[in-house]
């Protein structure tokens, strides 16, 4: 009991072992995988990132003019980095140091309807390709 009291008094006057979080930001660990950054100008629209994404956070929609559109849901992403490893174009998909912004009712995309739209557009695109042959 006496030793515990002495240790408690020592701890009152010693430097804290934890970080002062609100005042000092936490250091990022080495090999941190943060928010996925997509650069449209480098993308070749091969859809490899969509195929390897485990949670399905990346989807492509196919437009009628044979263009594709990239969609990314940071709130579904598990930040595994598989999309970055699968991308054949260096720099198209990269990790940023910051995390995804906090989710609010206005920032969360309607991912269910976007997935349905992506599936329908892909089916229509494949059907049009078969008709051309």
TrEMBL record:
The keyword Translocase applies. Residues 34-63, 68-98 form the 4Fe-4S ferredoxin-type domain. GO terms for molecular function: 4 iron, 4 sulfur cluster binding; metal ion binding; oxidoreductase activity, acting on NAD(P)H; quinone binding. Keywords: 4Fe-4S, Cell membrane, Iron, Iron-sulfur, Membrane, Metal-binding, NAD, Quinone, Repeat, Translocase, Ubiquinone. GO terms for cellular component: membrane. Gene3D superfamilies: 3.30.70.3270. This is 4Fe-4S dicluster protein. The lineage of its organism: Bacteria, Pseudomonadati, Aquificota, Aquificia, Desulfurobacteriales.
């Amino acid at each position: 009991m006496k030793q515990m009291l002495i240790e408690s008094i020592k701890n009152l006057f010693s430097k804290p072992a934890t970080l002062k979080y609100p005042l000092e930001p936490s250091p990022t660990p080495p090999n941190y995988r943060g928010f996925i950054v997509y650069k449209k100008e480098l993308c070749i629209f091969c859809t490899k990132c969509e195929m390897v994404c485990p949670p399905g956070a990346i989807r492509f929609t196919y437009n009628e003019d044979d263009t594709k559109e990239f969609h990314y849901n940071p709130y579904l992403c598990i930040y595994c980095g598989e999309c970055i490893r699968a991308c054949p174009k260096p720099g198209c998909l990269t990790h940023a140091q910051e995390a995804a912004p906090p989710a609010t009712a206005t920032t969360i995309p309607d991912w269910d309807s976007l997935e349905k739209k992506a599936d329908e557009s892909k089916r229509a695109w494949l059907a049009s390709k078969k008709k051309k042959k």
